[in-house]
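User: Predict the full complex structure for these chains.
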Amino acid sequence: MIKVKNLYHSYNKDDIYAVNDISFEIEKGEIFGFLGPSGAGKSTTQNILVGLLQLQQGQVEVAGYDVKHIKDKMFNKIGMSFEQSNVYSKMSGLENLEFYRKLFDVKTRDPKELIKLVGLEGKEHVKAGKYSKGMKHRLTFARSMINNPEMWFLDEPTTGLDPSIAAGIKDIIRQENQKGATVFLTTHNMYIADELCDRVAFVVDGKIRLIDSPKTLKLKYGEKLVDVEYIQDDQLIKDSFSTVEPAEKARLMEVIDHHDIQTMHTKEATLEEIFIKVTGRGLV
Amino acid sequence: MKLWYSFSKELKLSSKSWYFYLELVMAIVLLLVLLFVVPEEFNSKGKEYMYLDLPQVVQDNYRKNLLEDDEDEAVEYVELEAEDTLYPATLYETEESKVYLLESKIALDAITESERVPTVYVHVNDQNQIGFTYYLQGYETQKLQNLLGVFHNRLAGHDVIEAYSDQLEVRSLYQNSEPLNDRENILPVFLTFNGSLMSLFMIAAYIFLDKGEGIIKAYAVTASSVWHYLLSKIGVIITTSIFTTLIITIPIMGFQPNYPMMMLFLFTSGFFAAALGLLLTSFYDDIVQAFGAMYIVIVIMIMPNISYFTPSWDPDWVKIIPSYVMLQSFKDIISIGGNMTYVLVASAGFLALGIGLFVLATYRFKKTLSL
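Assistant: Here is the predicted structure of the two-chain assembly.
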């Protein structure tokens, strides 16, 4: 769905690159996470992919279109949800969606259905300028679905949303993905990436440091230990057991069989920990 | 069709914007100024204050001549206030001036002091000749002083003056068209600045509002072109300027102007000005940053006004400033027998320039979408 080869971008057209020799491919139906701290080059890459920034160097193909010679038709297949809400504040939520649906040449979704989907029902006739930050964000998110995009770009889709609404948004992303949408998710929130993405790319200083599935990364970089708290002789004992060493595994089994287990956790690394381990950089 | 959707949406949005109402209010204010502040004809009559210290017979003869020149052939008795004192005077209003005949030298001196205008003391000298003493204020040019000298010696040099006059070529500024009255003559200035050039600033205001809200980016990722978005903005601006122009023009001019030509010219000149505004805005993020460039444009565009009101100052470089062409075109459009060929050529020129600027502006906007 997306093919990027040797992509470079310099804002001042000098040798200081915001994006520096990036290459990756995204398969149809995949949720691909583009992860990195602020200024890593995530937004620059995404803006090039959707034509908001001109392609300077490299090859980019999105939904079968060469981005070098971008065509309006390409956007019939693309949806884009911006991090910064950008809706017409003097129009109601419904009017916003009604207007945008007319700008596509493909069958579009019912704006009322989308309003309901993102939890803005009852507020559809209120001017978007009077919406809260979270409501505007949901409207921007809903707008990105209006043309049933095959390729869906999401820039920090849950930023500024309370946990219950964020959970709803994640569910919608999963549903749309199951219906066939390919998702390009740009975020610095590793928990969302962990929950949603089939594969993630770690981006730092304009370069991709690593691409893999969260599960593989955890297996590769996580410690293979289990932390256990159990009761022995009325005392709370804390211990760690290797899940690889046969002797340790046998000892763990014995503890489980003969003692009262209070807590038990695998010492699986989080994506954030892996990111720091791989890139040597935090996510802020 | 997408262009139409964008245009109708922009029209709806602009009707909710205070900029739209600002334009309407400005048009109404300008109309009221024209109707109630600007007279149909400016009163440019000079005032002359005289005291005739002459024998009664001569005085009567002078007054009789003045009365013949008086517009209503009636003497008006007035009182002039100077230095807190009222002085009686007789007023003769001729086609060219208002002549106040005072009744004493004291009154003349008081008026000279208080009014700060040249006054004339006419008297008989020792040789029984009529003498004219002018009390000038010191700011009069040497040319005026010479003219006064010539005036009183005109008979002596009559032949020279006549020969010189015969060589002078006097051409009317209105060769084919009827002259406009003073109020109508100001109208092209209002139409140029309210109708066409306001387009430049209004579109900048609308674009910067959208830039602030990130609307252009959202539009750019739809299957509609950026030029649709920009052209729909221009369409709204032109529609508004047509409305405001009609608000000002119809009550002042009635059905005299060539309205089809006015619509054509408003369309082309508005398109040019709005496209120029678009190009300017493509270089800046907000109106504060753009203010310097806009200020320069304002100053340049104001210059042709000097030429418009002072036809003797009409250098070639002023003629290439767009507002010069706009002023002349609007003047021709509202005049009886105006030069429509000039208006058509100007319209074609503005359309061609507008298209060029619009293409450039669209290129710039595409290039700077994510900034």
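Chain B has two domains: 2-39+181-367, 46-140.
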